[in-house]
Write a structure and sequence with these properties.
- A hairpin with a 2-residue loop joins β9 and β10.
- The chain has two domains: about 325 residues, no CATH class; about 130 residues, Immunoglobulins (Immunoglobulin-like, Sandwich), CATH 2.60.40.
- By secondary structure, it is mainly beta.
- The chain has three helices and 27 strands.
- The strands form six sheets. Strands 3, 4, 5, 6, 7, 9, 10, 11, 12 and 16 form a ten-stranded mixed beta sheet that branches.
- The longest helix has 11 residues.
Length: about 500
């Protein structure tokens, strides 16, 4: 079985990329292998796959992480093998400081892939020299043409960290912080002349800007398929590229064969996959294509575990040298929708719930839940806010008309004497409060929100379907049920 991140299931494909802003640094970056001095798995002799700054973790005899037989080598911590930098600062003999330390945090605008204002980035391998810069850049023997996966994670609650943490002073909001483990941007970049460059479209942003951490992973190894040396010779799309690519996607050796090298990540990824399970027709690892596969986590970090603590927390102050930071604003408002305030201490994540960075009514940053469905038993106080095309709370203002149908009423405000309709003035991203109530047990109906440019429909009634997962990553594996009967052996 080949090893690699599930998001690099069909890693190769077409290995082409545009001109690089750091071509002038080719002669300045020496050769080297960031994994040369990494610890080895005693029983296998393979390089241990450890995200930067985290302890070496091994699954126990049950081969599952998050169970009692896990082995945590707290005295062996992953060094820096990869470094990502946002904003594409020049990379020469030294790796630049993270953006917060160099005083130049890049700004982006949330938009669908290939639109809006993306975050430019550069990724290099590092010799692991300790320090705030993340070491010195080196060019591994496997770097040329390697597809690297760059990920973005959003600080939804605005506490300055990505991931499950107690460093924000709150020990009871872990369920909300788990949502920060879902990538809000993914992009492949191809290694060329010692650097992999690209730009990352981000799907989540806030009206006052949202902190985003950039991280990366790469399967560090050679390609077994000899034809892959020609992949960079062909332009995509084109007949020559398709002729080369299609046989590989259908089951050939399309991924590198080697261990996973990583920056710091907010969780331990599942690195043990068989890339031959990739479905036919899957979009390959191409910098101009959307990433069409998922990232799975093997272990959900627990700050209460003294062996692990906050090792997987991604700080946004520049103190983690392998990652970098950007700030993303929501896009232009295109419609109005309904949100509810989120209490992180009582939040229970369930499939389909959409939590986004927003504002409290007093104007301070706070997460909100953007509502598409609501179970209404008695009465609820909601807010009408402007939204961008991706459902982020946006800056905007306007006159909004509410119309209800079914067993629902708008009871406040009441300017027209009718519980079926109401007109509301929204002055900013803080929104305007409205109160709705059910007129029958297990009420069913709709609440339509009309603005000048669009409409949003809130369905009201019992939840009949589980919905979908909120983003592009699978939930962590569930703990085994102690009362469940043991599975029979094959």
């Amino acid at each position: 079985m080949k090893r690699g991140l599930p998001a690099v299931v069909a890693l190769v494909g077409l290995l082409t990329v545009g001109g690089l802003g750091n071509d002038g640094c080719v002669a300045e970056i020496p050769a080297g292998d960031p994994l040369a001095d990494d610890p080895r798995v005693p029983t296998e002799g393979e390089v241990a796959e450890i995200p930067a700054g985290t302890p070496w973790m091994q699954a126990g005899p049950d081969e599952e992480f998050g169970t009692a037989d896990d082995v945590v080598h707290a005295d062996i911590v992953g060094d820096v093998d990869l470094v990502v930098r946002a904003g594409l600062p020049p990379i020469g003999p030294n790796i630049p400081l993270p953006a917060p330390l160099r005083g130049a945090i890049p700004l982006g605008v949330a938009a669908p892939f290939g639109q809006g204002s993306a975050i430019p980035f550069g990724l290099v391998a590092s010799d692991g020299t300790p320090g705030p810069r993340g070491g010195r850049p080196i060019v591994p023997p496997w770097w040329e043409g390697i597809p690297a996966l760059v990920l973005a994670f959003a600080d939804l609650d605005g506490d300055g960290f990505v991931g499950v943490t107690h460093r924000d002073g709150d020990t009871r909001d872990g369920a909300l912080e788990q949502l920060e483990l879902y990538p809000v941007g993914r992009r492949y970049a191809i290694g060329r002349h010692g650097i992999a460059e690209g730009s990352l479209s981000i799907s989540v942003g806030g009206p006052e800007g949202t902190g985003v951490a950039l991280a990366a992973a790469v399967v560090a190894g050679p390609f077994e398929n000899p034809n892959l040396a020609c992949a960079s010779c062909h332009a995509w799309p084109g007949a020559a590229a398709e002729a080369l690519l299609l046989p590989l996607v259908e089951g050939g050796d399309v991924a590198p064969d080697g261990p996973l090298a990583m920056t710091r990540l907010p969780f331990l990824p599942d690195a043990d996959v068989d890339y031959r399970d990739a479905p036919r027709g899957l979009v390959p690892a191409h910098p101009d294509a959307r990433v069409a596969v998922q990232v799975e986590m093997a272990y959900l970090p627990d700050p209460n575990d003294p062996r692990v603590g906050e090792a997987f927390t991604l700080p946004l102050d520049g103190s983690a040298p392998s990652i970098d930071v950007a700030r993303v604003h929501s896009g232009p408002a295109v419609r109005f929708g309904l949100v509810s305030d989120v209490d992180g201490r009582r939040f229970a994540p369930t499939p389909g719930r959409s939590v986004r960075p927003g504002l409290s009514f007093d104007g301070t940053p706070a997460p909100v839940e953007v509502l598409g469905h609501l179970e209404l038993e008695t009465a609820e106080i909601l807010r009408v806010v402007p939204l961008d095309t991706l459902g982020n709370v946006a800056r905007g203002a306007g006159t909004v008309r509410l119309e209800v149908s079914g067993e629902v009423e708008v009871v406040w405000p009441d300017t027209d004497g009718s519980f079926a309709t109401e007109t509301v003035e929204v002055e900013s991203a803080r929104g305007a409060y409205v109160a709705v109530r059910a007129t029958a047990p297990r009420a069913e109906g709709t609440l339509a929100v009309f603005g000048d440019d669009g409409v949003s429909i809130l369905s009201i009634g019992p939840t009949r379907a589980a919905g979908t997962l909120p983003s592009d990553v699978l939930l962590p594996p569930e703990a085994p049920d102690a009362d469940a009967p043991p599975e029979e052996a094959d």
